[in-house]
Amino acid sequence: MAAGKTATGIRRRQIVEAALGIVSEKGVRGLSVKGIAERIGVVPSCLYRHFKCKGEVIEAVIAHIGERLAWNAAEARRRKTDAAGRIEAVVGMHASMISESRAFPLLLFSEEVFHGHAKARGMLREALGRYFREIAEIVAEGQRRGEIRRDVPAERIPPLLMGLVVPAAILHYLSGGAFDAKAQVRVHLKLLRGMLRSAGENQKKDPRR
User: Fold this and answer.
1) CA angle, corner 20, sides to 165 and 130, nearest 5?
2) pLDDT per position as a tens digit, 158-187
3) DSSP 197
4) Mean pLDDT throughout 71-98?
5) DSSP annotation of 30
6) Are 189 and 91 in contact (CB under 8 A)?
7) How far apart are CA 113 and CA 28, in angstroms?
8) 32-78 pLDDT, tens digit each
9) Quick count: other Cβ atoms within 10 Å of Cβ 29?
10) b/e 41-59 (16+ beta carbons within 10 angstroms → b)
């Protein structure tokens, strides 16, 4: 039984990765069960043992994105001890996701997801909601420790950070990958870090003091 579950998990992962590759190359409209099967070297009927239709594959891909975002937040906590460093780390990893694969922005901006698949849209909303709450908690911890200014509600920061990533994602996509999304996000994060630091933290960082 355990071996069977492992094999099933591996196959589902292969299907999701193949779907991401196809979306990156052809967009969501270019995704098909037949195309996924060809990419991983199986017959289409093999895929139907794991997913009933293309819509379920899209749901699995969105679940994968949600897991990746959650991992980013946990990894940022592991890598850094200060709130500002954690914020920069998690947003930097988000920008890396965009640079690694065009599938992420294509899925996020897909008309098929936003208008044609209510369940996928809801899953994406829930995944982003969890991601925002994780970032808000990092901010709140920084505020409690006096690292981040307290006059800005913690829950307002995640959408602001998303606002740094989305334009970079659009430009990265429009340029065919030539635009360096990570570099732009790094510059904007540096500016934001100065604005979010508490007065005490700014005094520590000012070499004239």
Assistant:
1) 50
2) 999 988 888 888 888 788 878 888 898 888
3) B
4) 92
5) G
6) yes
7) 9
8) 999 999 999 999 998 999 998 888 999 999 999 999 999 999 999 99
9) 11
10) ebeeeebeebbeebebbbb
CA-CA distances (angstroms) from residue 40 to 22, 35, 37, 51, 145? 11, 9, 5, 15, 50
Structural domain boundaries in the chain: 60-205
Three-state secondary structure call for residue 148? strand
Q: Which residue has the tokens 């307290």?
A: 150
CB 164 within 8 A of CB 192: yes
Structure-token pair, residue 116: 């044609």
Contact status, residue 31 vs residue 22, Cβ threshold 8 Å: yes
SS (H, E, C) 63-107: HHHHHHHHHHHHHHHHHCCCHHHHHHHHHHHHHHHHHHCCHHHHH
Q: Which helix (H) or strand (E) holds 136?
A: helix 118-144
Tell me how many degrees the CA angle 74-79-80 measures, rounded to the nearest 5: 100
Cβ-contact 197, 149 below 8 angstroms: yes
Domain 60-205: give its CATH superfamily.
Tetracycline Repressor, domain 2 (1.10.357.10)
Across all residues in the chain, what is the average pLDDT?
85
